[in-house]
Amino acid sequence: MALTPSKMLSLNTIAPNFDLLDTVSNSNKNLQALRGEKATVIMFICNHCPYVIHLNQGIADLAKAYTKKGVAFVGISANDVENYPQDGPEHMKANAAKNDFIFPYLYDETQAIAKQYDAACTPDFYVFDKDLKLAYRGQFDDSRPGNGKPVTGKDIKAAIDALLNDDPVSEKQVPSIGCNIKWKF
Description:
Helices cover 26% and strands 24% of the residues. By secondary structure, it is α+β, with helices and mostly antiparallel strands. A hairpin with a 4-residue loop joins β8 and β9 (134-138).
């Protein structure tokens, strides 16, 4: 595991489209069908990263709290499953059920979508406004495995709440940090 920060894609970038396998429903889903009325949260996550595991309950709770407010959530795993089989689609479906994810958990087999989003780590969070312009990219909060800080989601919640209230999202954003995406070579 190489501790890696997110690359911080430029604000106002339009969300790259995708059409990927949803491991939960076993059908392909695209961004236009999944986007939220008020905001869309794209999360690059995986099954085995301790930084993602640390946030799984918080991610599930956040999606449950905000989906009913017009915010869509999408999880994407882009890890190389040949070298990290625990991140394969069948395990993704089980992980989604175990963590009570109410959002699609998509498999980016070619890693092309992760590259388009300039994703670097798991977890890597992106919050897009109603027009799919990037408003926030960064950490969930400052909780990390072993640092004793509670998982609150304060950073990502502040961004989502600003969008819901038609307020500007603070440009002071802290990169997420976690395991590097396991790229194919």
